[in-house]
Amino acid sequence: SWKVAQLRDLIREINAGYSAKSRDRTIQDGEKGVLKVSAATQETFQRKEHKAVLPEAEDDVKTYPRAGDWSMRRSNGTESRVGACVYVEQDYPRLYLPDTLWQIRVEDGVSARWFNYALASERMRAKIRGEAYGTSGMKKLSMRRLRGLRIGVPPVEEQRQIAEILGVCDHLIEQV
User: Fold this and answer.
1) What residues pair up with 50 in beta bridges, in sequence order?
2) Which of 49, 66, 89, 98 has the greatest count of CB atoms below 10 A from its CB?
């Protein structure tokens, strides 16, 4: 009962971040931070991986991680890290995405958690790596290439069940 779809059919919107001028320290009360690319690993969203935005650059940052969305690395010096994605559990309105991370929101009827697990699978990671372009010093992924990838899509209830089972496994691994 799975269908094959292009990612463009599953993604509602992709928002790019902005790499504002910043200091390499964590934010204090009332400050804004810009995430480092290391905030998006294959495992979990790393909110502590950020830098403090300079006061004169605070108006430049716009896109913050929101609950139910996920973030993806759109470029990296290491090809294997292009496309790394993490599910965002809660809103982080004082932290903002840099230009190297995308915020992705899925269409209604698609489980964002399942979608994150599906794109983190080795098969999809290989497809994403195959779409990366650029020099050996910096590999990039375009929105057009990402949206054109094909994936097997189970019914939404099965998506939720898959995500729940994998979430339990992740939780057990974290405890160990």
Assistant:
1) 35
2) 98
